[in-house]
Design a protein that fits this description.
The protein is α+β, with helices and mostly antiparallel strands and 403 residues long. The protein folds into two domains: 4-243, SGNH hydrolase (Rossmann fold, 3-Layer(aba) Sandwich), CATH 3.40.50; 267-401, Jelly Rolls. The chain has helices spanning 41-49, 61-64, 67-79, 97-107, 131-143, 160-164, 172-182, 190-198, 226-243, 302-306, and strands spanning 4-8, 11-15, 34-35, 53-59, 85-89, 115-119, 148-153, 185-188, 202-205, 215-218, 267-269, 275-276, 281-282, 310-312, 318-325, 327-334, 340-346, 352-355, 364-369, 376-387, 393-401. Strands 3-8-7-6-4-5 form a six-stranded mixed sheet, with helices on both faces. Helix 3 packs across helix 9 (226-243). The protein is globular, with a radius of gyration of 22 Å. It starts with a strand and ends with a strand. The relative contact order is 0.14. Residues 1-22 have low confidence and may be disordered. Keywords: Hydrolase, Signal. Residues 1-21 form the signal peptide. One of its GO terms (molecular function) is hydrolase activity, acting on ester bonds.
Length: 403
């Protein structure tokens, strides 16, 4: 049985109790730099023993190309020189936990990590009110109950006032209940950033004010510059050092779900699973090599999002997919509003029209989910009904959600 540990800004109180992961009751509306919960004893046991250790990173662009990942790995390698520590970069820019839970098996668990850092608060960590994020945890521990998990919370400009007050963000309030329920450690990077800002030692965004002698945290208010990543690394290091001797190694147990219809059986289905009409052709996704253990956006993430893809430039073309679950998602070309529209028919129900519009208005390779429905076996036909000149519709792997 794990030990329960509570830490508040570096002051540790060790409480020896036989409790399960779901007993933690930290205030989810507030944020603290470190909430240990069950800790990560399996991870530290392997590090101290000098065993091979694989560290997995799952999140968005701040983690994909962000230096905090590389810097944290370098520190682990220097702190535990006897252990052969390697990484799995399974972060993809601009993607949230709803997409992450569908791809976690294929992109991360297949590599058998020992430790997983999850970073999704900036990228819509509240997706489906936390049900998407929660769905990752059973998948991880069903694969290997000894894998340890840590949620790390990065900061963006729209979170500044909340975090300065010590409040959790609008996305984080759906992530912390998951951490409470499953006993997962969470680390808040943003409090230290706001502390330095309050002390006039930091400029949050380049151009916000005089910067002589100060840390410039970011250019865009979201993606840290190297000095910003140093802050993230330092918070992570002191948090890991504070808990490295806490907890009892052993398998993590999966409690009953916190919510109904969590994304615990989400998966990717290849584009070949569908039957396409005659005027679809295989897409050329460029020279990017097959995805293995590094999803760095070398070609804008197209290969990592699509896997393989089919494309058409002709209105009226369609494809049909048979699937099991309660929600279907598409990886596809998105464009400005009104440029691409599809009509969706499922199980003989009235059809519905979807506008494949991107958040920025620019053509991009992204994902979207269709409406949630009753769990079961379904047949969905999707027909292209509108396509602006010069744009092609590409359809990649499908996102199938069940529990």
């Amino acid at each position: 049985m794990r030990l329960r540990i509570s830490l508040l800004f570096g002051l540790s109180i060790l409480i020896l109790t036989n409790i399960s992961a779901q007993s933690y009751d930290f205030d989810v509306t507030k944020t603290e730099e470190l909430r240990v919960r069950d800790g990560m004893p399996n991870f530290f046991k392997k590090l101290k023993a000098g065993d091979p250790v694989k560290v997995g990173y799952l999140g968005g662009s701040i983690t994909n190309g962000g230096l905090w990942r590389a810097k944290s790995l370098e520190w682990l390698q220097s702190e535990y020189p006897k252990a052969n520590i390697t990484q799995i970069n399974a972060a993809i820019g601009g993607k949230g936990p709803d997409y992450g839970t569908c791809r976690i098996k294929e992109h991360l668990l297949v590599h058998n990590p020992d430790m997983i850092f999850i970073e999704f608060r900036v990228n819509n960590g509240s997706a489906f009110q936390g049900r998407a994020l929660e769905g990752m945890i059973p998948q991880i521990w069903e694969h290997n109950p000894n894998i340890e998990i840590c949620m790390v919370y990065t900061i963006a400009h729209w979170m500044k006032e909340e975090i300065a007050r010590g409040d959790q963000t609008s996305a984080g309030v759906f992530m912390e209940p998951v951490a409470n329920h499953y006993g997962i450690t969470s680390i808040e990077f943003g409090l230290e950033v706001m502390k330095l800002l309050k002390e006039d030692k930091l400029v949050f965004k380049k151009g916000d004010g005089p910067s002589d002698g100060k840390i410039i945290f970011s250019k865009d208010g979201v993606h840290p510059l190297e000095a910003g990543h140093d802050i993230y690394r330092d918070v992570l290091i002191r948090s890991l050092k504070a808990i490295e001797n806490h907890g009892t190694p052993g398998p993590n147990k999966i409690p009953k779900p916190l919510k109904k219809h969590i994304f615990s059986n989400a998966s990717l289905a290849p584009v070949s699973k569908a039957e396409f009409s005659s005027n679809w052709h295989k897409s050329d996704l460029g020279n990017e090599k097959s995805i293995n253990d590094d999803l760095t956006d070398r070609n804008g993430g197209i290969k990592s999002v699509f896997g393989e893809a089919m494309q058409t430039s002709k209105v009226g073309e369609s494809f049909t997919l048979k699937w099991d679950g309660f929600m279907l998602g598409l990886t596809s070309t998105l464009a400005e509003k009104g440029a691409i529209q599809i009509e969706v028919f499922t199980d003989g129900d009235p059809s519905k029209i979807y506008d494949l519009k991107s958040r920025t208005g620019k053509t991009a390779v992204k994902y979207m989910f269709l409406d949630e429905m009753e769990s079961g076996s379904h047949t969905t036909r999707i027909k292209l009904i509108k396509l602006a000149p010069g744009i092609k519709l590409q359809i990649g792997q499908f996102l199938i959600v069940d529990n």
